[in-house]
Amino acid sequence: MFKDGCDMKSVKKNLFTETMKLLTKHAYEIRYVLHEVIDDYNATYNVVCGNKHITTNAAKELDIPLNEIWISELWKPYEKYILFHELREIYYRAKGISRNEAHEKAIQDGFALWENDPLLQKLIKEIKEMDQKTAKKKKKRNK
Fold this sequence. Notes:
The protein is an alpha+beta fold. It has one domain. The chain has helices at 8-26, 35-38, 57-62, 79-94, 99-114, 118-141; strands spanning 29-33, 43-49, 52-55, 68-72. The protein has a four-stranded mixed beta sheet. Helix 1 packs across helix 4 and helix 4 crosses helix 5 (99-114). The relative contact order is 0.13. Mean pLDDT is 89; it is low at 1-5.
């Protein structure tokens, strides 16, 4: 318990709740797309947050409509983790943090919430495996 009477569980719950409010506040649409469409990326976005247009090169390449977040259908069982991560990344980027730093901060926030969650550990393992397959595929395409 913290000095102010808050416990870590309520702090974590508030972080999750406040982050998920971005969805309704900005009316972002979540689209699960065929993995083949987004296989070079796990998820990406093209949104406006805090009067800033925040997008990725992947979103430009895939021509994602404004205020949409796309996630590979493969990751649907892990929706809360993926969506939380993307929203945290958007939040940090809206605050002026670089894309890479925002990505790292979003990862840290996810670990702060679910550090010992076996489903998150499974997701991390599966994403690493998928990233390795994607890297091999890209290498073959570039030869």
